[in-house]
Amino acid sequence: MAGPDAQPDSAPTQFHHWKLLESFQRRLAPVLARRQPTRTELNPRRQLQPAGYFSLLLFGLLNPVLKTTRALCAATHFPRLQAAVGTGPVSLASFSDMQWVCEPEVLAGLLRELAAEARPVFGDARLQAQVQDLVATDGTLLPALPRMAWGLWQDARHRAGKLHLEFSVWRQVPSEFTVTAGNASERGTWEAKIKPGAFYVNDRHFGQDYKLVSRVQKAGAKFVLRLLNNTVLHRLEPARELTPAERAAGVVEDVRVRLGAEPNGPEGRLVRVEAAGHTFLLFTNQPELAAELVALIYRYRWQIELFFKWLKCILGCRHWLAESQAGVTLQVYCALIASVFLMLWAGSRPTKRQWEALQLYWLGCVGWPELERSLQRAKKAK
Question: Do 138 and 265 lie in a common domain?
Answer without folding.
Answer: yes
